[in-house]
Write a structure and sequence with these properties.
Helix content: 25-40%
Radius of gyration: 23 Å
Low-confidence stretches: none
Mean pLDDT: 96
Number of strands: 23
Number of helices: 16
Strand content: 15-25%
């Protein structure tokens, strides 16, 4: 007798083949049979012609802290994800000597937009080393299959302490210890090594995240460990320093796949041709035998923010003035004409790689605090300025100041024109992922990227067929990151499955929930058209709510293809 049979589904294997009408039987967490299954099962689901596909593989998440208090890794399971990679960009919490715990989470709270109080109250510190962290995850029992990066900033902090954000060159002994910790993480089952040179990545009180001040020589030494052990992938939030040429040279030196994550690879109206140059450079590197890819977002890069916490604007030098300022200090600075002039100068000559380039049609008033301002909701700042007969910079700051900095704005900065984004999504050097799930909780939630892809890029625009769209969300990312068995719905494979209605699948607008430790608020998305999500044969979400499990069925992944 089987554990589970899903009867009468349109089954897609995740490999790009057309769907077939079939039953799927599951035993001991694996797909036992696909076809006309005659045997009985302990549990039977009537799919009624719904589509059944492998679970979505999300290569770019930041659940490193949340997983210690929330084994569901919400909201990703609700949104069809069954496998997640955490620790991207080199930001996480392991390894972490006990005296540095507060330093680690303070930096994480800023760079990944997380509630600091929730982190301080919520993280369960049953570890100091990376192997101990992996052991804790196994005890937690996550709902998702979970792989973990060894992180540059984390390891630099563990070795150098507070000086990690101040001292460019480590001593020879410090560098040797960092290399040892990378090797220890790889031996403990890390999926690879992650770093960041991005100018957008600032830590607590405006201090740079440790990896962003590191030298290229340091990066080469640490990524060299991957070559020494002969396994693992390298991803980096590259900024402008780690150019495609630099990334290719690293991949050539260590023989490992390299993945670029940067806003420079996103379609940008101000420089519409630039993103494609990155993809073409990666394709050319592939043709030279070097495994280079771009982690690609299929959604507009949108952020909900207030001027009390203007995360999206901090990379403009004018905003250096607000670092460490309290609320009263923010009000004075925002009202100051010299500050506004400096910001206008930044927008007139924006640095490469920053988020907001000055198009005020791309920032919208989302939520106001005062009744007399309700009519402004839904207006772009450009439209608001026209209505008020003033400059957009003045309209922006004046509205926020009148509302004691409580006004919510939504910025839609990159990947916001379908005609420009579609060629990137279809490019052979692109890997569709980049949800940032678990991060930027106050501003956005892109954890539903897969359901958005199925609704927008498959159903609504027809850019992809359903079978090819499913492949790009499942077996393709798993293959690129060397994750064995996942992302395919074939006999013998782990039973990671998503049952959905192709005519209705999609995601809601961001919804605010005060469910973090200490009552912290985060933005989540809710699914539509989802009828069930299974991880290793166990239902984790039924399309409406999570299955209440004392222990999740997800595997802590620690073995990967070379």
């Amino acid at each position: 007798m089987h554990d589970l049979i899903i009867r009468g589904a349109r089954v897609f294997d995740g490999l790009g083949n057309p769907g077939v009408d079939a039953d799927v039987a599951v035993s001991d967490g694996r797909v036992a049979a696909i076809g006309n299954v005659k045997q009985a099962a302990h549990s039977v689901v009537d799919a009624g012609g719904l589509a059944l596909m492998p679970g979505i593989v999300d290569l770019h998440t930041h659940y490193d802290a949340q997983i210690t208090w929330d084994r569901t890794m919400s909201p990703s399971p609700a949104l069809g994800v069954t496998t997640a990679v955490i620790g991207n960009c080199g930001f996480g919490i392991a390894p972490c000597p006990a005296p540095l715990r507060e330093t680690m989470v303070k930096n994480l709270s800023v760079v990944e937009g997380m509630d600091l109080n929730s982190l301080l109250q919520g993280v369960h510190w049953d570890f100091e080393s990376f192997p101990e962290y992996m052991a804790q995850l196994r005890r937690v029992g996550p709902y998702l299959n979970t792989a973990v990066f060894a992180g540059h900033s984390v390891i630099r902090t563990a070795v150098m302490g507070e000086a990690a954000s101040e001292k460019v060159d480590p001593s020879a002994a410090e560098l040797a210890e960092m290399c040892r910790l990378v090797r220890e993480a790889m031996d403990a089952g890390a999926i690879g090594f992650a770093s960041s040179f991005s100018p957008n990545h600032s830590g607590f009180a405006g201090r740079p995240m440790p990896s962003t001040i590191a030298s290229e020589d340091e990066l080469r030494a640490l990524t060299g460990v991957l070559g020494d052990v002969g396994r693992g992938v390298f991803m980096s939030a590259t900024g402008t320093r780690a150019t495609p040429e630099v990334m290719e040279s690293i991949s050539a030196a260590n023989g490992r796949p390299s993945f670029i994550s940067t806003v420079l690879t996103m379609y940008n109206e101000a420089a519409p041709e630039r993103s494609m140059t990155y993809y073409d450079a990666c394709a050319a590197a592939q043709d030279r035998g070097h495994q280079m890819y771009v982690l690609t977002s299929c959604q507009p890069l949108s952020f909900d923010f207030t001027l009390n916490d203007p995360y999206v604007l901090l990379s403009h030098s004018a905003f250096d003035a607000i670092k460490g300022a309290g609320t009263d200090g923010l009000r004075r600075i925002y009202a100051d004409a010299s500050f506004r002039a400096a910001f206008r100068a930044n927008l007139a000559s924006p640095r490469t790689g920053i988020l907001f380039l000055g198009n005020w049609e791309r920032i919208t008033v989302s939520l106001t605090c005062l009744p007399e301002h309700r009519a402004f909701e839904g207006l772009t700042i450009a439209a608001l300025a026209r209505r008020l007969g003033t400059d957009p910079v003045d309209a922006f700051f004046d509205l926020a100041l009148k509302e004691d900095l409580g006004t919510h704005f939504v910025g839609q900065f990159f990947q916001n024109v379908d005609a420009g984004v579609a060629p990137l999504l279809k490019h052979r050097a692109g890997v569709i992922t980049l949800s940032d799930a678990g991060a930027h909780l106050l501003y956005m939630c892109d954890a539903g990227f897969g359901l958005h892809f199925l609704s927008h890029w498959v159903r609504n625009t027809g850019t992809f067929t359903l079978e090819e769209g499913i492949r790009r969300l499942t077996s393709h990312p798993a293959h690129c990151f060397r994750i064995p068995e996942r992302g395919r719905l074939v006999e013998g494979a782990p039973a990671d499955m998503l049952l959905f209605d192709p005519a209705r699948v999609g995601i809601s607008r961001p919804v605010g929930k005060a469910d973090l430790p200490g009552g912290g608020i985060r933005m989540v998305r809710e699914p539509s058209g989802v009828h069930g999500v299974w991880v290793n044969g166990v239902m984790v979400h039924d399309g409406a709510d999570y299955t209440r499990l004392a222990r999740g069925p997800g595997a802590v992944l620690d073995r990967f293809h070379a």
